[in-house]
């Protein structure tokens, strides 16, 4: 996940099923990659399996593998998907990094969308959740008051500052400045929602790095990069920049060793 950029998350119900999600994403990726769908493979235990797709760059120049290729597994996650199901999908991807895939040997696995989309989505929603529970008219009055106060002293406050000050004043008026809100402000946050949002983003970042150590990355669209291939917080490829200059290969790591070729 790129923490300075906004992930373009699919809204609930955007795709009716996993097959529709895969068809949409692969149609986008087709201009940059050769695609083979439903590639068979075998676990080290001998059990057979299949992965949704294997992608190979149409232009391998700039990639840090002799024969660059990677697997993609899709999951159409519903808003009410349980934590167990989400991390069951992650466990499946980790298992896939140890499989022998027909014609490819072992592959790094990239999940689409990110298995941590729920954390990003919750972080985006937290900031506005309580605003929905209070009067928008009263809140707008507070915004006007803050702006007028600033102009009286020759200042033009930013929208973010106006929103923060108006919300704090409105909550104080309604008696919502709870102990949680007070301690969040004492810690330097605008409110408890901001503190929880930062906590979620930090958790997502830590989990992203952990998955990267297990050779699992994500294929996601981002606001400034377009479709992007990420692992351990590092960009490996994007539609706007192509293959990244960082010398990180796609193949699974052995232990803590970075696979560069």
Main attributes of the structure:
261 residues; alpha+beta; 9-stranded mixed β-sheet; 7 helices; 20% strand
Q: What structural class is derived from the secondary structure elements?
A: alpha+beta
Multimeric state: single chain
Query: Strand percentage, roughly?
Result: 15-25%
**Which spans have pLDDT < 50 for at least 5 consecutive residues?**
none
Can you give me a brief rundown of this structure?
39% of the residues lie in helices and 20% in strands. It has helices at 18-29, 83-96, 117-129, 136-152, 159-173, 179-186, 192-213; strands at residues 33-42, 48-57, 70-74, 100-101, 109-112, 216-222, 226-231, 234-238, 242-243. Helix 6 packs across helix 7.
Commentary on this structure:
By secondary structure, the protein is an alpha+beta fold. It has helices at residues 18-29, 83-96, 117-129, 136-152, 159-173, 179-186, 192-213; strands at 33-42, 48-57, 70-74, 100-101, 109-112, 216-222, 226-231, 234-238, 242-243. It has a 9-stranded mixed β-sheet. Strand 6 (216-222) and strand 7 (226-231) form a beta hairpin. Helix 3 runs antiparallel to helix 7, helix 4 (136-152) crosses helix 5 (159-173) and helix 6 (179-186) packs across helix 7. The chain is elongated.
């Amino acid at each position: 996940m790129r923490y300075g950029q906004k992930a373009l998350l699919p809204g609930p119900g955007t795709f009716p099923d996993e097959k529709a999600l895969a068809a949409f994403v692969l149609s986008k990726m087709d201009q940059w990659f050769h695609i083979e769908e439903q590639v068979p493979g075998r676990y080290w235990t001998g059990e057979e399996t299949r992965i949704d797709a294997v992608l190979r760059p149409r232009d391998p120049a700039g990639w840090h593998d002799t024969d660059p290729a990677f697997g993609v597994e899709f999951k159409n996650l519903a808003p009410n998907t349980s934590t167990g199901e989400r991390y069951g999908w992650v466990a499946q991807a980790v298992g896939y990094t140890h499989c022998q895939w027909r014609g490819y040997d072992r592959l790094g696995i990239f999940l689409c969308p990110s298995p941590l989309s729920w954390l990003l989505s919750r972080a985006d929603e937290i900031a506005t959740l309580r605003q929905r529970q209070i009067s928008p008219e009263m809140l707008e009055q507070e915004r006007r008051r803050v702006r007028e106060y600033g102009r009286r002293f020759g200042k033009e406050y930013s929208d973010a500052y106006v929103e923060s000050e108006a919300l704090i004043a409105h909550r104080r008026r309604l008696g919502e400045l709870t102990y949680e809100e007070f301690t969040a402000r004492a810690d330097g946050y605008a409110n408890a929602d901001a503190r929880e949002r930062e906590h979620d983003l930090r958790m997502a970042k830590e989990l992203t790095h952990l998955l990267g150590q297990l050779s699992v990355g994500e294929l996601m669209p981002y606001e400034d990069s377009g479709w992007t291939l990420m692992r351990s917080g590092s960009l490996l490829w994007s539609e706007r920049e192509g293959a990244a200059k960082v010398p990180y290969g796609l193949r699974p790591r052995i232990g803590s060793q970075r696979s560069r070729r």
